[in-house]
Amino acid sequence: xxxxxxxxxxxxxxxxxxxxxxxxxxxxxxxxxxxxxxxxxxxxxxxxxxxxxxxxxxxxxxxxxxxxxxxxxxxxxxxxxxxxxxxxxxxxxxxxxxxxxxxxxxxxxxxxxxxxxxxxxxxxxxxxxxxxxxxxxxxxxxxxxxxxxxxxxxxxxxxxxxxxxxxxxxxxxxxxxxxxxxxxxxxxxxxxxxxxxxxxxxxxxxxxxxxxxxxxxxxxxxxxxxxxxxxxxxxxxxxxxxxxxxxxxxxxxxxxxxxxxxxxxxxxxxxxxxxxxxxxxxxxxxxxxxxxxxxxxxxxxxxxxxxxxxxxxxxxxxxxxxxxxxxxx
Length: 329
Ligand code: PBG
Hints:
- By secondary structure, the protein is of the alpha/beta class.
- It has one domain: Alpha-Beta Barrel (TIM Barrel).
- The protein contains eleven helices and twelve strands.
- It has helices at residues 15-21, 58-70, 98-109, 145-161, 176-186, 207-212, 233-244, 259-268, 279-290, 296-309, 320-328, and strands spanning 31-38, 44-46, 54-56, 75-81, 114-119, 133-135, 141-143, 166-169, 195-200, 249-253, 273-277, 314-317.
- Strands 1, 2, 3, 4, 5, 8, 9, 10, 11 and 12 form a ten-stranded mixed beta sheet that branches.
- Helix 4 crosses helix 5 (176-186).
- The radius of gyration is 20 Å and the shape is globular.
- The N and C termini lie far apart (50 Å).
- The chain binds ligand PBG.
- Ligand PBG is lined by residues 118, 120, 122, 130, 170, 206, 209-210, 222, 278-279.
- The site of ligand PBG has 11 residues, from helix 6.
């Protein structure tokens, strides 16, 4: 007996067929736009390493937020560049701290837009590390876990107090999600969710961001707190601990070199999965496109689709604004 010829190409023959059998669809609902804010007014300064992205003063950021909202983007995530830095990053939660001030302005002007804040110390410390520095047991300068958590809790409370809709700790200290959750619950912020950067790898793909946020470490690297890119099992443990500590959304970061981690995380845990399509992933394609070597829209949309196909239902991406425009075309 002979079998009929299997022909998968039959359903690829025309755009309507392809549309009907498409398994993954990207939507504007999936997108979160990262934005950088610094003090001043009337400032919209392009970031050299991330063309089309800017350091905004709060007033200009509000305008940008309005445009993003009008495009249908549900959420932004804010990163602050403070006027002053010190060893403990106290400008992250000072009275006039840049992120809380900006949150208030955005929430007043565009109340329907979800404002997420990145909770980390690296933008605020003079040494550029993600927390308070002490000598570790080997005699090396290192970020101290629990001292850092105390600072992160202060920062998260300052953000929540200003009206942030969600906080996103990106420091990779152990136990910070639980401590922030408990502090929130005690202070009446029990309804504010936590999106945890759970499996955040020590990656060179953050390079352009560190220019944007002016946060490169002044010595050493982040390998004592961010994850070893070799480890998938450990990533699952990170995700599991964050869920136990009360994370509402878990994140894998970066995205494209870690699609297997996104897939395993979304298969194993029934918590919404976010992925951060980081600065290096963005800038590589941007640079190639500027050289005429690659089609930016095609490469960007294929990247975002792959992240969604891997299992992420929320995608933090510097293409959020462009992608929303492309999706609306
Ligand atoms: C802060 C933070 C970083 C990024 C997001 N939050 C930098 C880092 O950990 O060095 C990177 C984002 C990107 O590269 O787009 N800790």
